[in-house]
Amino acid sequence: MSTQPATAPLLIACALGIEHLALRTGERGGAGGPVTLLRTGMGPKAAERSVTRRLADPALAGAAVLATGFCAGLAPGMHPGDLVVAEETRDPDGTVPCVETDLLVKELVRAVPGRTVHTGPLTGSDHVVRGHERSDLLATGAIAVDMESAATLLSAVRAGEHPVAAVRVVVDAPQHELVRIGTVRGGISAFRVLRSVLPAFHEWHRSLLLPRR
Predict the structure, then answer these.
(1) Using one digit for the tens of pLDDT, what is the confidence trace for 16-36?
(2) How far is CA 86 from the centre of its chain?
(3) By CB distance 3.0 to 4.6 Å, which of 28, 50, 99, 206 could disulfide with 40?
(4) Which of 206, 188, 178 is nearest to 22 (CA)?
C-alpha cells in the first residue's frame, strides 16, 4: 500500500482571463491539499513554459495537475455548456493518459446537474479550429479540441510524477460556432458551468490522497 503526501497540492491550469475569473469566483474550500490556480496564457507554447516553470517550485513536488477552461466540441450533438472529460490528451509531441476519469465524470454530474458530460480523447491545436478542421479532427477519434490541455499535461509528466487530468467546457460546437467568448448565450452558459466545477476538482484531488493498495 502506498500514499501520496497528505498535503500533496493541486495545480489547476487555465489560459484565458475569463477562464481564470470563472474559476476564481467559483472557488470553494477544498477537501484535499493546497490548491494553486495558474493562468498560463494562450497557446501550447505559453502553457508549456508556464507549467514547467511553476512545477519547478519544490512546493509543488508531486502536485496533481488539472488542465481546464473552454474548448471546441467536435462531435455532432454537442452544445455550449457541455463538459468534456479527457481520457487522454494528444498533440504532435505526444499522448498523455488521464487519471481517475470515472471519478471526475461522477463528481461533475453531481456538481453541475443537467449538463451532458462527454468522455474521450482531447486533442491540441496551435490555433482556433473552425469549419472543416473540426471534421478532420473528429475523424482522428478526438471529441474536442483546445490549445493548452495537451501541452499542460505533457509538461507535467515530463517534470516528474504528477497525476494529470483535463476537463473542458464546450464553448462552441459544429452547429454553435461563436465569434467571441462571452458575447452570446453559449459563451455565458459555458462561463457559468466552468464557475461550478471546482467541487468536482476538489473531490478528484482528494481521491488521489487516499491510500492505494
Answers:
(1) 999 999 998 876 544 445 889
(2) 8
(3) 50
(4) 188
Q: In this structure, what are the phi and psi dihedrals at residue 40, rounded to the nearest 5 degrees? A: -85, -25
User: Under DSSP, is residue 141 helix (H, G, I), strand (E, B) or coil?
Assistant: coil
Position with higher pLDDT, 77 vs 32:
77
Residue 14 has which C-alpha cell? 487555465
Cell 494528444 sits on residue? 90
Angle, CA 124 vertex, CA 68 and CA 57 arms, to 5°? 55
**Rounded Cα–Cα distance for residues 147 and 116 (Å):** 22
CA 17 to chain centroid: 15
Entry field: residues in the chain: 213
State the Cα–Cα distance between residues 77 and 176, nearest whole angstrom: 10
Task: Using a pLDDT cut of 70, give the percent of the chain over it.
Answer: 86
